[in-house]
UniProtKB/TrEMBL annotation:
<dbReference type="Pfam" id="PF12833">
    <property type="entry name" value="HTH_18"/>
</dbReference>
<feature type="domain" description="HTH araC/xylS-type">
    <location>
        <begin position="179"/>
        <end position="277"/>
    </location>
</feature>
<dbReference type="InterPro" id="IPR003313">
    <property type="entry name" value="AraC-bd"/>
</dbReference>
<protein>
    <submittedName>
        <fullName>Helix-turn-helix domain-containing protein</fullName>
    </submittedName>
</protein>
<dbReference type="GO" id="GO:0003700">
    <property type="term" value="F:DNA-binding transcription factor activity"/>
</dbReference>
<dbReference type="InterPro" id="IPR018060">
    <property type="entry name" value="HTH_AraC"/>
</dbReference>
<dbReference type="InterPro" id="IPR037923">
    <property type="entry name" value="HTH-like"/>
</dbReference>
<dbReference type="GO" id="GO:0043565">
    <property type="term" value="F:sequence-specific DNA binding"/>
</dbReference>
<keyword id="KW-0238">DNA-binding</keyword>
<dbReference type="Pfam" id="PF02311">
    <property type="entry name" value="AraC_binding"/>
</dbReference>
<keyword id="KW-0805">Transcription regulation</keyword>
<keyword id="KW-0804">Transcription</keyword>
<dbReference type="InterPro" id="IPR014710">
    <property type="entry name" value="RmlC-like_jellyroll"/>
</dbReference>
<dbReference type="InterPro" id="IPR009057">
    <property type="entry name" value="Homeodomain-like_sf"/>
</dbReference>
Amino acid sequence: MSNVIHVPPPEHAADMYFHPPYITLAHLFHAPQHWGISSRQLSSYQFQYVVEGAAAYEIEGRTIVTNRGDLIYHSPSQIHEVRTFPDEKYICYSILFDFGETPYPVEQLLGQDRYLGNFAGHAVEKMLTQLITHYHQPGLAHHTLCQGLLMQILSEIAGWKQEQETKTQGQQKIKTKMVLVRNYIAEHFNRDLKHRELEELSGLSRNYIIVKFRKAFGMTPFEYLTRVRIERAKELGIQTNMSIGEIAGRVGYADVHTFGRMFKQNMGISFSQFCSSMVTD
């Protein structure tokens, strides 16, 4: 007698499990001066994440001005246009993906709004950078990791959006103060910041700031400071011919070894590896 027990599949199983995404393009795009795209439609989904600068997207009649940290998405066959601004650079991560023949409920997961939010300093930003980096590495292991990262990104965004929708008015006031603290750190990232400055800025105590900042952004204020410094270092590494030592000093590190260690700890790869992975033919 066979001991195998046949368990019937759960009801509506076809609605619960989907094929993983297939990424057709993932790169860092530097827009040339006066660059733009007239009306077009893509056959895939697309994420556009602003690394630096600004651009305006028109998606089915709605204009969305995107700045540093903003993330938007398009659906297949959705009409959209892109335009940059005079004397304003635009650098973005562009990721195209689809799910083959099996429809995936992306809009159910992310919502109808094509503007997904600002993820500067958020875990989503780190995962987007890792995806771009691994996509340009040869081998199935790297491509499989990219698929997993994309699914994590979709999940993180969905959870973040749900959290935003359920915030109370009091929570929103605290979040506004945390955004103020975050912006202050981003503007003064290359000098020695003190907790006292953040207390005076927000009117909150040091410990309270740490707790609420971590809840809002998934890290402490000074972990975010490190993240900003590293993001700025990536920009300098891509856009300039500065040495690693010069870049480390420019972003607030007196010791190049400390800078290198912190970069690898945050990004999972060395600074040299990151710069070489961004070089395309």
